């Protein structure tokens, strides 16, 4: 893992510092600033699968979970989103059944952004529970007022190791629904390593004369990135 990003931030120092501020400071404004900055670092790297980076956030779990009871009883608490964000953004597994229950509850939150965060958290559970898979599949159909449809197809990319979810993505990527195809192709293009089924599909897609203009570059870039 790089010690610093392009702006010169050393995450091995900055992340523990921010966690320490959140743990010890009682000033609401300072606490909120530290929490926002910490989760901003995590959000910016949601597509990276870097265990070393994720481990830097592990000490935040018990600190955030001091507020678990508040998150369970107050659906407007900022701590609910913060607690599940450690799974959503950096893939840390829930530390308890209470945290897992919070994730499932937030799938139906009134805020669709929180719904989306909870769905990503479900997709990042390892191993993927059957109930989490059932919820994810149910949301691939567009539903009013719910994070669903193409948005969830893209989320399935976090659980591409599951063969049932992989088949759903392959079917959508090969289909004629443009929005669904775009989302599925984006999800499949992030697979590392790329399954043979995805590689074969991408090569077939490039032969299609009706291939969507937004899909073609994603497919080409994914194929170019493969090791020679």
Task: Explain briefly what this protein structure is.
With 228 residues, the chain is mainly alpha-helical. The protein has 14 helices and no strands.
What can you see in these coordinates?
The chain has 14 helices and no strands. The protein is mainly α. The chain has a domain at 1-126. α11 (163-174) packs across α12. It is globular, with a radius of gyration of 19 Å.
> Per DSSP, what share of the residues sits in E-state strands of 2 or more residues?
under 5%
Number of strands: 0
Largest sheet: none
Average pLDDT level: 94
Structural class label: mainly alpha
Radius of gyration: 19 Å
Oligomer: single chain
Number of helices: 14
The ordered string of helix (H) and strand (E) elements is HHHHHHHHHHHHHH
Question: How widely separated are the two ends?
Answer: 24 Å
What share of residues is helical?
55-70%
The global form is globular
